[in-house]
Design brief:
CHP00375, 16 helices, 15 strands, alpha/beta, Pol/histidinol_Pase-like, two-stranded parallel sheet
Length: 400
């Protein structure tokens, strides 16, 4: 069985997140997106754990089914679509959390149960674990790995290349952080497998691609996701699949669209060649701080100029949220009635947003939305003209 999974999101208890990040809304929007399994995020926050318990069915498998599926209008829309793989089944949840370790490296944790989350939180030395969904813990990567392994969980670096709080911001080698091999590495929005597979030490590590969503709407949730082949929908089967490198598809941003792809200024967002940035001592003429981009950071630590993909590595497919593409094509805001009407029509016609972006026949899309079909075709064929992001500013697609 192959499932679509987004394993890194945040709840309403994380900083700068939507108050709509609750289980019922996440579940309803996940099915419209086409996701089968979603990480809960923030699994150490006491109030969020209570909401998870109240909103899901008790489980002995480590995979949790939601009791309710959002408001009536959401339920009607979900029930009106016909997803060929999963029908109208509700999205399921797996316990996940992101924490910031002693070295300001963000770690993604995937846990076997709610009970394990309660047990682990009691062992985490943290002053803000009851206040912030993504807590800071007074442990290094190796100590945290030992704790998570003791509780049968999975651990790997979150958004591994971003220039603020990532493993390759702090270390030149993944083993300087863990002293061992992590279960996975999360690529982040500004990198893909072609970039990461230039680094020799990552050749035996599965990559995952997740949204890091702070709101539940489908232009955020599942903007990056994974196809994973599992034997059954249980935590142990999921863990076995990760260890067996059964991530069979990665989907996400063209890395040029990420906020930190190129080296650039965090104030004026100018892209600055790394050599010039170093001459300027990483200070822009405008006075802003220059942040080294993911492309240049990978260049520092890469062994090869071209990617060396191991045999198990799946293809990385570039996508963009459907509402963003519709907005781009029609020159209307993502949340406008105009854009949302077209988005709903596409989802109702093809079953889910993922179906539209990846599998729907282009000629069928073109019957009602010819310009939209052209841009989706360009994504599928990697022929888009993109102005790269830098300094915390997303890249832009330049349409002819």
């Amino acid at each position: 069985m192959i499932i679509n999974a987004d394993l890194h999101i945040h709840s309403l208890y994380s900083m700068a997140t939507s108050k709509s990040m609750v289980i019922s809304t996440i579940a309803s929007q996940s099915k419209l997106k086409g996701l089968d399994l979603v990480g809960t995020g923030d699994a150490f926050h006491p109030e969020w754990l209570k909401i998870i318990e109240d909103s899901t069915q008790p489980s002995k498998t480590g995979i949790y089914s939601v009791k309710e599926c959002g408001d009536d209008s959401q339920t009607r829309l979900i029930n009106s679509v016909d997803h060929p793989e999963t029908g109208t089944a509700k999205c399921k949840f797996i316990l996940t959390a992101e924490v910031e370790d002693r070295n300001r490296v963000h770690q993604l944790l995937i846990l076997p149960s709610i009970e394990a989350a309660y047990q682990i939180r009691e062992e985490l030395p943290s002053k803000n674990i009851d206040k912030e969904g993504r807590p800071r813990v007074n442990m290094n990567g190796a100590e945290l790995m030992d704790l998570i392994k003791d509780h049968n969980g999975l651990i790997g670096p979150a958004h591994a290349f971003t220039p603020w709080t990532s493993i390759y911001k702090e270390f030149d080698s993944i083993y300087d952080c863990y002293n061992d091999t992590p279960d996975f590495l999360e690529l982040g929005l500004s990198a893909d497998t072609d970039m990461a597979d230039r680094i020799e030490e990552l050749q035996d590590i599965p990559f995952i691609s997740n949204s890091d969503a702070h709101s539940p709407w489908p232009h955020r949730l599942g903007r990056e996701f994974n196809e994973i082949e599992i034997k059954e929908m249980t935590f142990n089967a999921f863990k076995d699949a990760v260890h067996a490198k059964k991530v069979v598809g990665n989907y996400g941003f063209d890395p040029r669209l990420g906020k930190y792809h190129e080296t650039g200024c965090v104030r004026c967002y100018d892209t600055i060649p790394i050599e010039k940035a170093q001459e300027l001592k990483m200070r822009c003429p405008c006075g802003g701080l220059i942040k080294k981009g993911v492309k240049d950071r990978i260049g520092d630590i890469a062994k090869w100029k071209e990617p060396h993909h191991p045999e198990f590595r799946p293809q990385y497919t570039h996508i963009l949220p459907l509402a963003e593409i519709i907005s781009l094509v029609h020159g209307k805001g993502i949340t406008t009635v105009y854009v949302q009407k077209i988005w709903k029509e596409m989802v109702q016609t093809f079953g889910s947003e993922i179906e539209v972006l990846i599998y729907a026949p282009l000629d069928k899309i073109a019957r009602t939305e010819p310009k939209l079909a052209e841009v989706i075709k360009s994504f599928r064929e990697n022929t888009l003209n993109i102005q790269s992001g830098s300094g915390g500013h997303y890249g832009q697609i330049i349409l002819d």
